[in-house]
Specification:
Number of helices: 15
CATH class of the largest domain: Alpha Beta
CATH superfamily of the largest domain: Type I PLP-dependent aspartate aminotransferase-like (Major domain)
Distance between the termini: 68 Å
CATH topology of the largest domain: Aspartate Aminotransferase, domain 2
Bound molecules: pyridoxal-5'-phosphate
CATH architecture of the largest domain: 3-Layer(aba) Sandwich
Shape: globular
Largest sheet: 7 strands, mixed
Strand content: 5-15%
């Protein structure tokens, strides 16, 4: 049997050293290449490992599908950020998320929010149900509704996403954890858009936190990856590990290395992008072509107080604007940008704009006049000027201020 490490390897515990997460991450936990004394650890690409003469595998490695050293080193950084017992990396965010649901049993009842990452919602609606899960979609911001949906003895998982894609509503994680635990269920949280810089769901009572590491964690739009981090290394976590091994869903070593390189600047990037998002949210709230800005950092946001309590130091890099004139104006605005990149995804250093309803398709809760914005780290004045001109052109407004 491959040895699954109880705790991530190569991890000088921050509590012992006293160094901050930002410091340890900048140095990739301080690991060096012992052989050459290089300041960057090598990428471990071996898929198979020498067995000891007594038949054991004393290195702890047997084969590349269950485990990999470069993957472990990157997992250690993520586990640290999330104050987790352990972390696991997957070949995508979807692989990470679905591995949690695949660790449940047929007949188990699952509560998921109505507004959430659309591919996962579709998978839950179709495939998870076909596999025997009983999935119920509830307003994730309505704690009373979630509580009322719990079925004693049957509900095994509450899924939350906060801030949730693409409306950026905020779920109360402490309250949801309490509801889940009283029902004997687990709370799992897609924290991709909160990022571990601003939010640690495990410290609020969640059992598992999930990230599309493709997004802010990597930050450069060049790796597809997923991450899970757990409060407990229990039987459920080991089932997820077995899923990763048996489904061959581990992240490749090259991608894990790139992700580690991205993580080294996580704190800087995420804070810069979040400051841009905040500034853009404020400025576009006053814009004559904008009907509404959705951003949890605005006092007008319905869960602003909760976001302030739950997210420390920032509200994330994601916001949406609803364009006056409806769908046609929103699409025309996206067509008229010159600096913003018209593309799906989020969390990169470059700013992205997307007409979200058309990508989500039928059944989306996303309004047709909504443009989803992923703020990058460019000069905020440039980002504002470009979107301002696009909005004015699309909605036929002059360039004069209001
Ligand atoms: N969760 C959120 C919030 C996302 O935005 C995405 C992707 O856009 C995912 C999960 C899925 O991640 P991936 O594309 O890496 O599978």
């Amino acid at each position: 049997m491959a040895r699954t490490p109880k705790t991530p390897s190569k991890k000088p515990a921050p509590a012992k050293t006293g160094w901050s997460k930002r410091t340890l991450t900048a140095q990739a936990m301080g690991g060096i290449d012992e052989e050459t004394r290089g300041v960057v650890r090598p990428i471990h690409v071996a898929t198979t490992f020498i067995r000891d003469p007594d038949n054991a595998y004393s290195s702890g490695f047997i084969y590349g599908r269950p485990d990999n050293e470069t993957v472990r080193e990157t997992e250690a950084i993520i586990a640290m950020w999330e104050d987790a017992k352990a972390a696991m990396l997957f070949s995508s965010g979807m692989a990470a998320a679905t591995s949690i649901f695949l660790a449940l049993n047929p007949g188990d009842h699952v509560i998921a929010p109505k507004v959430m990452y659309w591919s996962l919602r579709n998978w839950l609606k179709n495939d998870a149900v076909r596999l025997g899960l009983n999935v119920e979609f509830v307003d994730g911001t309505d704690t009373a509704a979630v509580k009322a949906a719990v079925r004693k003895g049957q509900t095994k998982l509450i899924w939350a996403e906060t801030p949730s894609n693409p409306m950026w509503s905020v779920a109360d994680l402490s309250a949801l954890a309490d509801i889940a635990h009283k029902a004997g269920a687990r709370l799992a949280v897609d924290s991709t858009c909160a990022t571990p810089v601003f939010s640690q769901p495990l410290t609020l009572g969640a059992d598992i936190v999930m990230h599309a590491a493709t997004k802010s964690m990597n930050g450069h739009s060049d790796v597809v990856a997923g991450a899970l981090a757990t409060a407990k290394d229990d039987e459920f976590w080991q089932r997820i590990a077995a899923n990763r091994k048996n489904l061959g869903a581990i992240l490749g070593p090259f991608e894990a290395f790139l992700l580690m390189r991205g993580l080294r600047t996580l704190d800087l990037r995420v804070r810069a992008a979040s400051a841009n998002a905040m500034e853009l949210a404020k400025r576009f709230s006053e814009h004559p072509s904008v009907a509404e800005v959705l951003y949890p950092g605005l006092p007008s946001h319905p869960q602003y107080q909760l976001a302030k309590k739950q997210m420390k130091g920032g509200f994330g890099h994601m916001l949406s604007v609803r364009v006056k004139g409806g769908e046609a104006s929103a699409v025309a605005t996206a067509a008229a940008v010159e600096l913003w990149k018209r593309a799906t995804s989020l969390g990169g250093v470059e700013s992205l704009i997307e007409h979200r309803a058309s990508i989500e398709g039928e059944g989306t809760p996303c309004p047709p006049d909504l443009l989803r914005l992923s703020a990058g780290i460019e000069d905020v004045d440039d980002l504002y000027a470009d979107l301002d001109q696009a909005l004015r052109r699309a909605t036929g407004r002059s360039n004069r201020k209001k």
